[in-house]
Amino acid sequence: MFYSISRVCKSWCSAVLDVLFPSTGLLDLTKVDTYPECLRKEYMRFLKILLDTRPKAQWHTFVPPHTVWLKEHAILYIAQRSPCLKFLHMNILRLDPYHMAFPYWKNLKEYSCPIFMLRGSSDLISCLGNYCKNLQHLGLCGIIGSETASFIVKHLLELESLSLKKSSLTLDALLIFDGHAKLRILDLEHCLFVDAEVLKLFYRRAGVKAWLLKKPGTKAKKWNEEIHEKVSGNKRYIHCEEALCLECSWAY
Ligand SMILES: [Zn+2]
């Protein structure tokens, strides 16, 4: 399909684009993850044609490939041609090459990356805060102490919902989020609440998902016994069944 049809005529080329990128407005590049090496260049060539021929304003959602690594100039090319982007769903380990794209995505409303962050999130948060002033939803997974929580609250003033699924965080960090003026929903499913000293151990051992690290003798704090009383109660908190949860029971 890549090699022959595209060279026949414009309508055939358009038909190929419709197969590769079937949803109007959704720039989902995960299909390229499944292609053999020899077809990836062709895919990227079609992506360029797509971006050059379709209206820039139509792109509302971008999902980068999970395993195929986009070069910086490719990320920049996409960003410059998708100025109305609202939703960015990442599923990759290295986020820093994407930071240069944020100045072009000023309308971003939602940023999510469920992959555990190996490094600090401060560069990402400051980029989002500087360029995407209307960001309303943030989804992250990581080790979150009071410093990171303060950073998020300070830079993302318009945040309405925050998802920290499978993160490890301190109670202080939660209380800082609790004080965010506009935040209404905190998704804390499979999160572990631990003391700041234990959080430091997670930092040292980082390399796999924080919540999977098991330290004998350490117990996570329970929502009903230790957390419920301390939060303001004016936000919606989503959390799992802790000791009854198949994912988290080991920590209680
Ligand atoms: Zn759980």
TrEMBL record:
Matching SUPFAM superfamilies: RNI-like (SSF52047)
Gene3D superfamilies reported in the protein's UniProt record: Ribonuclease Inhibitor
Protein name: F-box domain-containing protein
